[in-house]
Amino acid sequence: KSIRDSFLRLLNDENLTEKYIVIGAKESGLDFITNPNIEVIEMPRYWSRAFMAPLIYRFALGHVLKRLNADVVLNLGDLIVHSGVKQIYVFDWPYALDVHPTVWKDMNLLDWINRRLKLWLLKRDFDRPDIVVAQTKFIKGRLKELYSLRDIRVINNAVTISTSQEDKPISFALPSGLKFLYPTVYYPHKNLEILIELAGLIKINKLN
User: Fold this and answer.
1) What pLDDT, in 10s, does the model give residues 104-140?
2) CB 43 within 8 A of CB 25
3) Is the separation of the CB atoms in 39 and 60 below 8 Å?
4) What are the φ/ψ torsions at residue 119 (nearest 5 degrees)?
5) Rounded CA gap, 139 and 98, in Å?
6) DSSP per residue over 109-134, as a string?
7) In angstroms, rounded to a whole number, what is the distance separating the alpha carbons of residues 36 and 195?
8) Interatomic CA distance for residues 101 and 176, integer angstroms
9) CB-CB neighbours of 22 under 10 Å
10) DSSP letter string over 72-112?
11) Cα distance between residue 40 and residue 27, in whole Å
């Protein structure tokens, strides 16, 4: 969602000459779009349900794109669309990069099943996009190595500071000393636990 919103907010401010259509489920937070050349098509809310994703990407989206007579689709979604329309797929799911077995082992059963299913679907359909966008050169290399993709472009992810522009001041009451800023959401594959070991080494070596 952060990638989608960052891109659309920038696009919304442009003087566009082409027509853009954004497909999203109802109440998906696209009210900020005001550009006359950007049309938002709201699909039923169940389109946002995770268990519906395989059917929607396999069948429904292809029909919608055909009805719209789309020239190209920029896919910021979870899975790859089955469609004859030229497709640019923005990849941002590290579980498809052959993560360490410990990551899979530490998941609960439901997460393991959901992610294994998504991985299987991505592997099945990775040859469909015309272009795959990776966020780093490292990810591009891993995608080439694992899936032999034809065309991978690197576009680094943007960092937005919009959430820090609110009027309400925020104080974390942190003690003095060395501080690390690590803006992220917790996911098992990120191995954030290693930061605890790092903090211990910093204290032992009196680097704070």
Assistant:
1) 888 899 999 999 999 999 999 999 999 999 999 999 9
2) yes
3) no
4) -60, -40
5) 11
6) HHHHHHHHHHHHHHHHHTTS-SEEEE
7) 47
8) 38
9) 18
10) EEEE-SSS----SSEEEEE---GGGG---HHHHHTS-HHHH
11) 12
Q: How far apart are CA 121 and CA 118, in angstroms?
A: 5
Measured CA to CA, the distance from residue 95 to residue 188 in angstroms comes to 10
Pairwise CA distance, residues 170 & 181, whole Å: 15
Residue 149 CB contacts under 8 Å (≥ 6 apart), including other chains: 126, 127, 132, 143
Tokens representing 120? Answer: 């299987």
What's the whole-model pTM score? Answer: 0.81
What percent of the chain clears pLDDT 90, i.e. is strictly above it? 57
Spatial separation of the C-alpha atoms in residues 118 and 193, rounded to whole Å: 25
Q: Could you tell me if 62 and 82 are in contact, meaning their C-beta atoms sit under 8 angstroms apart?
A: yes
The rounded mean pLDDT for the chain is 88
Long-range pairs, 150-157, Cβ under 8 A, ≥24 = 155/90, 157/3, 157/92
**What is the band of 72 on the pLDDT scale with cuts at 50, 70, 90?**
very high
